[in-house]
C-alpha cells in the first residue's frame, strides 16, 4: 500500500524521498523492521490474551525430560507470525504482483487450516484436532490454486534472451517473455527441466498442466507436513524457517534481477524480485516469534503457525522455480518427515512379521530420538540450526557449482 502512496506523491507532487520506495532493498528493510516491531509490541499482548482465554497446550506424557513442565503453555502463537508477516507485506509489497498475491493467499489459507486444527484441539478438547483427510483436502486445494495460477496466469513468465552478436555493452538485449514449465535443476550445467517431459510423449503437451498441478500439490503437502512435524521442541521450526526464508530471499532477488541472473546464468523471472519484500517480512516475523518461542518457550506456534510456515515456503520455492532445491534447503523438514515414515513403516512391518513392533529410533520425529538419548533440547535445536545453515550455503553454492 505504501508503495502506491509514495509513487503517487512522487509523480504528482515530487515529494522529497518518495522515490526511495521504488527500490526493493529499501522496502525489504522496511518490511523486516516493521515485522520485528509488530512482534515485539503485540507479541506479549497476544500471549497474555491466549493465557486469559486459557488456550494452553495439553501435553501427552511421552517420557521426555522437562516435557510436563510445558503443560498449560499458551498455544496458537502462530497468530504472532501471521500478523507480523501479513501487515508488513501488505504495507511494503506491490499488491498487483501475482507472486505476492499468491504468497498472501497461501499464508491466509494454510493459517486457516492450522487454526481449525488448533481450535478443535483447544476448544473442542479433541487431542486429534482436525481430521487428517480435511487437512489434506485443504493442502490439495492450495496446490490447485498455486498450480493453476502459475501455469495459466498471463503475468507468470520467464525471460529468454537471444545470444548477443556483439559483446559491446551498448547493444540492447533481445529477449522474449514466454509461458513455460521450466524449473531449475541443481548441480547440472544446463540446469533446466521441463515438466512436459514427464508426459514421455504419450500425451500431447497441452496436458502438461495436469502434471504441473500434481507436482505443486505434492510439494505443498510434503513441506507443510514437514514443518508441522518439526515443530516439536522450543525454537526448532521457527529458527529453521528463518534460515530457509533468508535463502529463498536471496534466490528470489537473484532470479528477479536481470544483471545477476545473466551473470550467474540462471533463469530470469520478471517481477519475482518483489518476493524479496515478502521474504523479509517472513524472516522478521519468525525472528520476532523466536523471541518468545526460544527455550524455555513462553508460547507455542501450534498448527496455526507450523502448517502456514511449511505451506508458504513451498509456494515461494515454486514461484521462483527452485522447488528442486527443497530437499537441500528444507533438509531438516525432510529428515524429520523421513524419520516418522521409517519408524511407522518399520513398526508395522515387524509387527506383521514377528508379532511385535520394533523401532528404528527411540522415538520419532528425529528430534525426540535425541531427547531420549539425553541431549538437552536447546543443544538439539542449536545443532539442527547449524545443519540448516550448512544446507542453505550448499543450496546457494549450486548457483555456481555445476
How many structural domains does the protein architecture include?
1
Please give the share of residues in helix.
55-70%
| Number of helices in the DSSP assignment | 14
Q: Identify the quaternary structure here.
A: single chain
**Rounded Rg:** 22 Å
Give me the secondary-structure category. mainly alpha
Residue stretches low in confidence (pLDDT < 50, at least 5 long) are none
Provide the spatial order of strands within the biggest beta sheet.
1-2
Strand content: under 5%
Query: Roughly how many Å apart are the termini?
Result: 40 Å
Record field, number of beta strands: 4
Biggest β-sheet, characterized? Answer: 2 strands, antiparallel
Average pLDDT number: 90
Helix/strand order? HHHHHEEEEHHHHHHHHH
The geometry reads as globular
Quick recap of the structure?
This protein has 402 residues and is mainly alpha-helical.
Characterization of this structure:
InterPro entries: Glycosyl_transferase_4, PNAcMuramoyl-5peptid_Trfase, PNAcMuramoyl-5peptid_Trfase_CS. The chain crosses the membrane at residues 20-42, 76-93, 99-116, 136-153, 207-224, 236-255, 275-292, 299-320, 326-349, 380-399. It is a multi-pass membrane protein. The chain has helices spanning 2-13, 24-52, 78-92, 98-122, 132-152, 208-230, 236-255, 258-264, 275-293, 302-319, 326-329, 331-354, 366-372, 377-397, and strands at 158-161, 175-178, 182-184, 192-194. Helix 2 packs parallel to helix 9 (275-293). Strands 1-2 form a two-stranded antiparallel ribbon. A hairpin with a 7-residue loop joins strand 3 (182-184) and strand 4 (192-194). It is built from 14 helices and four strands. It has one domain (1-55, 73-163, 174-323). The mean pLDDT is 90. The longest helix is centred in the N-terminal third of the chain and has 29 residues, at 24-52. The radius of gyration is 22 Å and the shape is globular. The protein is mainly α.
